[in-house]
Amino acid sequence: MSYTIHEVAQKMGISTYTIRYYHDHGMLPFVKRDENNNRVFDDNDLEWLNIIVCLRATGMPVERIHHYLDLVQEGECTVPERYEMMKTQQERTLSEITALNKHLSTINFKVDHYADIIENNKPDMFVPTNLRDKPTTDQTA
Amino acid sequence: MSYTIHEVAQKMGISTYTIRYYHDHGMLPFVKRDENNNRVFDDNDLEWLNIIVCLRATGMPVERIHHYLDLVQEGECTVPERYEMMKTQQERTLSEITALNKHLSTINFKVDHYADIIENNKPDMFVPTNLRDKPTTDQTA
DNA sequence: TACCCCCTTCGACCTACTTGAAGGCAACCC
DNA sequence: GGGTTGCCTTCAAGTAGGTCGAAGGGGGTA
């Protein structure tokens, strides 16, 4: 199967601008062109793009992803380095999820607090203005 | 208690550059100055900063955070809008965590795959070069 | 007085897009 | 056949959110 840049954008949930950016920066080495110079993507390109999206979404810089793709093309002897990269990315992603869960509980606390005020019409009347609804720490929520 | 910008940076896990950036952009309205024009932070400032960090980390643009802080200062009548903002942020954060978990399973699959190759010295010998170690979709992992 | 360290402001730089301008090719409509 | 639509191209400029360097000042200690 072959796809236009718009089809790929829709499938992957990213913009055509972003795809062109990745292509222009050498991260999609197998993409072909048709007779009008338009980019033509196949399933292999989609799989490359899928892993690019995965690594970007988990915070790997474009330059590192480029390096990883180079390693893949260099063959088996680069497996240990690739392993280390993925290990690092795994740990980073786990900490990111942990951090987001902490922040989520802070936000949950706010949502509940506001819901309470709205439902029970219960303003914090005895607290000075600049301390009303003061931000909470992650721990309190 | 009062704190220097460096103490605050350490406590919050962000750089002094970032704190100055937030202050310069009006997001820390209560920060004082000492006789040498140095910024002086108190516990109330820390709590504001804590929620700024929480909202930024969960993807809220600086401009929206600024708006939220304005709402807090305007008083009780803005509670419904603040509630909507936090609801939106809650949903966004939940989807972000879901997405990260999907990406994590892709990465886990890679890590396991590489570990297998390294431990068992088992190259994918019968697969053509540009398909070796091809990226997997989130579903396969 | 010299040195060191931390602070300040201002402006430049960086990453990863995002958008705009200018123009080409093709397909449809009348 | 000419006009319009619509997608594509390239290249350059703009944006968000920091990040950093230069230049300079204050204060403490030797």
UniProtKB/TrEMBL annotation, chains A, B:
What keywords does the record list, in alphabetical order?
DNA-binding
Q: Which Gene3D superfamilies match?
A: 1.10.1660.10
Domain (HTH merR-type): give its ranges.
1-71
Please report the name of this protein according to its UniProt entry: MerR family transcriptional regulator
* Species this protein is from: Levilactobacillus fujinensis
